[in-house]
């Protein structure tokens, strides 16, 4: 399958976690894969913690494991998630999602930069890998059996399949004429890690309070990663706090749950907005990861969706190779895109709606939140995520649903 340097089977634009996982899964099938990214190899091999401890589901962890991407991580870098709780202090309701019966975790927290480093190391070892680092894509030209790509130094490269994994601001998406929507929630997310004197129970908690939220992500070694959703003006204030003031502020937000806390990382701040591409594919092109759908991190789905897309692409390409079909053909890219849309669209819309509803403080929104949590309560059991098997029939969810729907319609912006 390996071809001339100026022609490859697949060109992956973007060496983020999603682009690299797709590249690795295609390289191990014996394909030649060029990876284009403006960053140098040094920053991809040994990158620094960037505030992201990402929750990955058991299914995605299994896939990464088959690629060998987890074997280089130290035990302390993989923190089991025993379950997830969502609580709303203003309406005094909470939901809990535990593992399926027989499992001891719903997933794991992994620092994303370490996963990316491991993926890059593995990709760099593969025979068919063609690194085109410190470069950007500047043009695409569609030909009958491949795409001609032009790089920023004028060089051209032919590929049968183009994978756009260059993140939320994807230029590749524009080059193949796919537009996208952006939904700005008017919030920032502020992340940092703390050590604490009280043990955590391994459950992650997303607590909505006073028009914002604080999430505690339990890590190994009596550490917790914190993610706060704040109005930009409050984020400015928290970023400027000296360490003592910040400790006191966090302690209040945490209601003292973690005991004495001490910061163990810098503070990181990202604007909270969602983005969604109008289509996930074009001719010979598939959008993966944040280039396709940039989720708000509050439901911890963005990377999981991106990796599901990479896994799905690798499977469809393997089938195409087996059947002697075109790996850039519609049967590959349209199938992967359709499958990804089916999962991503409802999750994206639901996450936007959750963020909107849980950050408003008016009486209708409060009532709606109460009803939404009541309605969702039995689903903790129905979806089989929760080990605490209470009797779902005791929850008056049908009545709550009837009451919630008209209120929800009224609460939506005109
Ligand atoms: C605070 C926070 C917490 C999160 N927590 C979770 C979680 O718990 N679970 C979860 O599933 N997700 C989570 N996410 C989301 C997750 O981090 C992202 O979905 C994921 O990083 C997306 O990876 P990606 O490879 O698609 O994009 P990126 O990581 O953005 O990578 C894009 C790559 O493209 C490169 N690039 C950019 N422009 C070009 C160009 N013109 N040409 C070539 N290359 C280019 C960049 O250099 C970069 O290497 C979280 C996000 C944040 C911010």
Overview of this structure, please?
It is globular and about 60 Å long. The chain is built from twelve helices and 20 strands. The protein has helices at 17-27, 41-45, 58-66, 112-125, 171-175, 232-240, 243-253, 302-323, 330-358, 363-376, 379-382, 397-411, and strands at residues 7-13, 33-37, 53-57, 79-81, 83-88, 93-97, 107-111, 129-133, 137-142, 147-151, 156-164, 180-196, 203-209, 212-219, 223-230, 261-263, 268-277, 281-282, 285-287, 293-294. It is an alpha+beta fold and 414 residues long. The longest helix is centred in the C-terminal third of the chain and has 29 residues, at 330-358. The strands form three sheets. Strands 5, 6, 12, 13, 14, 15, 16, 17 and 20 form a nine-stranded mixed β-sheet that branches. It folds into three domains: 7-78 and 109-182 and 273-351, 3-Layer(bba) Sandwich (FAD/NAD(P)-binding domain), CATH 3.50.50; 184-270, D-Amino Acid Oxidase, Chain A, domain 2; 362-411. It binds flavin-adenine dinucleotide (FAD).
Short description:
This protein has 414 residues and is α+β, with helices and mostly antiparallel strands.
Keywords:
D-Amino Acid Oxidase, Chain A, domain 2, FAD/NAD(P)-binding domain, 414 residues, alpha+beta, eight-stranded mixed β-sheet, 3 domains, globular, 20 strands, 29% strand
Largest sheet: 9 strands, mixed
User: How far is it from the N-terminal to the C-terminal residue, by CA?
Assistant: 55 Å
The first-level CATH class of the largest domain is given as Alpha Beta
Helix content: 25-40%
CATH homologous superfamily assignment of the largest domain: FAD/NAD(P)-binding domain
Count of DSSP-assigned helices: 12
What is the number of beta strands?
20
CA-based shape: globular
Strand content: 25-35%
Q: Which CATH architecture of the largest domain is right?
A: 3-Layer(bba) Sandwich
CATH topology of the largest domain: FAD/NAD(P)-binding domain
Question: C-alpha Rg, in Å?
Answer: 22 Å
Mean pLDDT: 89
Q: Work out the count of structural domains.
A: 3
Alpha-beta content class? alpha+beta
Q: Give the cofactors and ligands.
A: flavin-adenine dinucleotide
Transmembrane segments: 12-36
Pathway: Cofactor biosynthesis; ubiquinone biosynthesis
Protein name: 2-polyprenyl-6-methoxyphenol hydroxylase
Domain FAD-binding: 8-319
């Amino acid at each position: 399958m390996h071809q001339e340097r100026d022609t490859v089977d697949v060109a992956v634009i973007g060496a983020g976690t999603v682009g690299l996982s797709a590249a690795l899964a295609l390289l191990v099938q014996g394909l030649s894969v060029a990876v284009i990214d403006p960053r140098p190899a040094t920053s991809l091999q040994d990158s620094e913690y960037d505030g992201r401890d990402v929750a990955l589901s058991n299914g995605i962890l299994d896939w990464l494991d088959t690629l060998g991407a987890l074997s280089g991580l130290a035990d302390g870098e993989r923190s089991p998630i025993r379950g997830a709780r969502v609580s709303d202090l203003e309406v005094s309701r909470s939901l809990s999602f535990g593992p399926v019966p027989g499992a001891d975790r719903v997933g794991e927290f992994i620092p994303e930069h370490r996963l990316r480093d491991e993926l890059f190391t593995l990709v760099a070892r593969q025979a068919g890998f063609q690194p085109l680092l410190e470069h950007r894509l500047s043009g695409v030209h569609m030909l009958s059996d491949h795409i001609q790509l032009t790089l920023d130094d004028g060089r051209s490269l032919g590929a049968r399949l183009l994978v756009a994994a260059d993140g939320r601001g994807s230029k590749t998406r524009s080059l193949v004429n796919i537009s996208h929507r952006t939904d700005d929630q008017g919030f920032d997310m502020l992340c940092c890690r703390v050590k604490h004197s009280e043990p955590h129970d391994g459950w992650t908690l997303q607590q909505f309070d006073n028009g914002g939220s604080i999430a505690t992500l339990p890590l190994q070694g009596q550490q917790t990663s914190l993610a706060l959703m704040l109005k930009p003006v409050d984020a400015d204030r928290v970023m400027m706090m000296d360490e003592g003031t910040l400790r006191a502020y966090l302690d209040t937000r945490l209601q003292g749950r973690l005991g004495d806390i001490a910061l163990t990382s810098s503070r990181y701040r990202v604007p909270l907005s969602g983005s969604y591409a109008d289509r996930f594919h074009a001719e010979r092109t598939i959008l993966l990861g944040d280039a396709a759908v940039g989720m708000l991190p509050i439901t911890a789905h963005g990377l999981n969706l991106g990796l599901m897309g990479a896994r799905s692409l690798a499977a469809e390409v393997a089938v195409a190779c087996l059947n002697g079909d075109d790996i850039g053909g519609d049967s590959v890219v349209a199938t992967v895109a359709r499958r990804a849309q089916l999962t991503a669209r409802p999750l994206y819309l639901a996450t936007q709606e959750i963020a909107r509803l849980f950050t408003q403080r008016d009486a209708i929104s409060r009532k709606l939140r109460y009803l939404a949590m009541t309605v969702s309560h039995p689903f903790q059991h129905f979806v089989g995520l929760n080990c605490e098997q209470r009797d779902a029939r005791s929850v008056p969810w049908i009545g709550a649903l009837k009451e919630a729907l008209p209120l929800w319609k009224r609460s939506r912006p005109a």
